[in-house]
Design goal:
The complex is a heterodimer. Chain A is of the alpha+beta class. Chain A has six helices and five strands; from the N terminus they run ββαβββααααα. Chain A is globular. In chain A, about 45% of the residues are buried. Chain B is an alpha+beta fold. Chain B has three domains: about 45 residues, Uridine Diphospho-n-acetylenolpyruvylglucosamine Reductase, domain 2; about 110 residues, 2-Layer Sandwich (Uridine Diphospho-n-acetylenolpyruvylglucosamine Reductase, domain 3), CATH 3.30.465.10; about 100 residues, Enolase-like, domain 1 (2-Layer Sandwich), CATH 3.30.390.50. In chain B, the strands form four sheets. A five-stranded antiparallel sheet of chain B has the order 4-5-10-6-7. Chain B has a four-stranded antiparallel sheet with strand order 11-12-13-14. A three-stranded parallel sheet of chain B has the order 1-3-2, covered by helices on one side. The N and C termini of chain B lie far apart (about 50 Å). The chains are: A alpha+beta, B alpha+beta. At the A-B interface, strand 4 and helix 3 of A face helix 2 and helix 6 of B.
């Protein structure tokens, strides 16, 4: 066992881990941070994305021992109390998810992208989240959500109003009658 | 999937790292960013006895100016390479090719030196290092030595870095004259591994191509220089026709593999097309 000290979502954690423990398993099984999920287990899907010292990484491809002395932020640490992070809120409002499995990783990758590029084009969003796979949405509403969040974070819109260059999510109510019922 | 158990060493200096490698037993793996090693360990394609983690070793990160060369620390991450002003000024081909590697998450962890020592034939950086005549600074039990790129890539996943050795930095000579560069890559969208890619650096002089250097990715077990194309381009007119004629020779002497992504003859076709595109773009055509 190897001793590690990691700050996770603002709390300091000192633990002994087996060197072969993957960061995602340490987060989920030792710390109970089950908001971060394991998707493909082959570094492809990005569902396990967290921030390590402020940069998005695939936590299935980092050993817990490599995170020693570092700061980890998971999806559980991005909201401020009861207030969702702008990217979380935008995924909700723009229907940026269906089954939701890819969502924690999508949101962490998107926050990372927006740190480097606060105003990405549609293509730049698609390129920026190329390491994250979604099998439900076809990405259309994910791209809308990221651009909507970007606009809010830049202060372009006040809260819920979508900026002009981002079209709101169009829901096919014939295919999704439960949405029609809510409208 | 979890790697098989291993002994773990976390040195803080190059000397300690070499000692840990020497003490690690029969099968020692050096962990840089881990973006290739951890996946193969998870799949149990590798089950080393000891892993020596370079993450806390001082002095292996960053890029510095050393007169006639820039020196890239082996542990410099791909994302740091992409943002580095010295690389942008003297070897933009490296930044361009690095930007095509995997995805943002992997580029945050993966390292320049790690990718070169791993020497995957489909990896993008070996052909770039070869095209730029990079030199590899290796330390080991016998001391420190510098190996030219032409001797560094020995075979499939095999380099001049021996079992007790460590790659510490890569020297990239500054080019004199007016060079432009281009990395052309062909890959499936869902996987960033190159099916074939071409790294080209071209120096133009008085409307002619004075000199060209071309590295081929995934056209054999090691990266290759397209020497016949380089010779045909030297002194050629900088026209689309002359470039196209020279680049017809790009597949000569190559031995690409056939796999799920492409047959060998298709790779040879791609090599010609991508070489023409890379040289044309670099030559401003």
């Amino acid at each position: 066992m190897t001793p590690i000290t990691v700050r996770v979502d603002g709390a300091t954690c000192a633990d002994d881990v087996e060197p072969r423990t993957l960061l995602v398993h340490y987060l989920r099984e030792q710390l109970g941070k089950v908001g971060t999920v394991v998707g493909c287990d082959t570094s492809n899907c990005g569902a396990c994305t967290v921030h390590l010292d402020g940069e998005a990484v695939k936590s299935c491809t980092v050993l817990a021992v490599q995170a020693d002395g570092s700061e980890v932020t998971t999806i559980e640490g991005v909201a401020s109390g009861a207030e969702l992070h702008p990217v979380q809120k935008a995924f909700h409002e723009m229907h940026g998810l269906q089954c939701g499995y890819c969502t924690p990783g999508m949101i962490m990758a998107s926050i990372d992208l927006l740190q480097d590029n606060p105003d990405p084009s549609d293509d730049e969003v698609r390129e920026g989240i190329e390491g994250n796979l979604c099998r439900c949405t076809g990405y259309q509403n994910i791209v809308r959500a990221v651009r909507c969040a970007a606009a809010e974070m830049r202060g372009v819109s006040n809260g819920h109003v979508s900026p002009d260059h981002v079209s709101p999510a169009v829901v096919d109510t014939a295919a999704a009658p439960h949405v029609a019922a809510q409208q | 999937m979890i790697p098989a158990p291993f002994a773990y060493a976390r040195p803080t200096t190059v000397e300690e790292a070499l000692q840990a490698i020497a003490d690690g037993g029969e099968d020692v793996k050096v962990l840089a960013g881990g973006q290739s090693l951890i996946p193969v360990m998870r799949l149990r394609l590798a089950a080393p006895e000891t892993v020596v983690d370079l993450g806390k070793v001082e002095g292996l990160r960053g890029v510095r100016d050393d007169g006639d060369a820039i020196v890239i620390g082996a542990m410099t991450t791909h994302s740091d390479v992409m943002a580095d002003p010295l690389i942008a000024e003297h070897a933009p081909l490296i930044a361009e090719a690095t930007g095509t590697v995997a995805d943002r998450q992997v580029r945050h962890r993966g390292t320049f030196g790690g990718a070169l020592v791993h020497a995957d034939p489909a990896g993008d950086l070996p052909a770039v290092a070869l095209a730029l005549d990079a030199e590899f600074v290796i330390v080991g039990p016998g001391g420190r030595r510098t190996v030219p790129a032409s001797e560094f890539f020995v075979d499939y996943l095999t380099t001049a870095v021996g079992e007790g050795d460590l790659l510490v930095e890569v020297r990239v000579p500054k080019l004199s004259g007016e060079w432009s560069m281009r990395y052309e890559k062909f890959n499936r969208v869902a996987q960033a591994w190159s099916i074939v890619a071409v790294a080209a650096a071209v120096r133009r002089e008085n409307g002619r191509i004075a000199e060209a250097r071309i590295g081929l990715t995934n056209m054999g077990p090691t990266p290759l220089r397209a020497r016949q194309v380089e010779e045909a381009l030297a002194g050629a007119e900088a026209t689309a026709e002359a470039v196209a004629a020279a680049c017809e020779r790009a597949a000569e002497g190559t031995e690409p593999s056939s796999d799920l992504n492409a047959q060998a003859d298709y790779r040879q076709h791609l090599a010609k097309v991508l070489t023409r595109r890379a040289v044309s773009t670099a030559a401003g055509l």
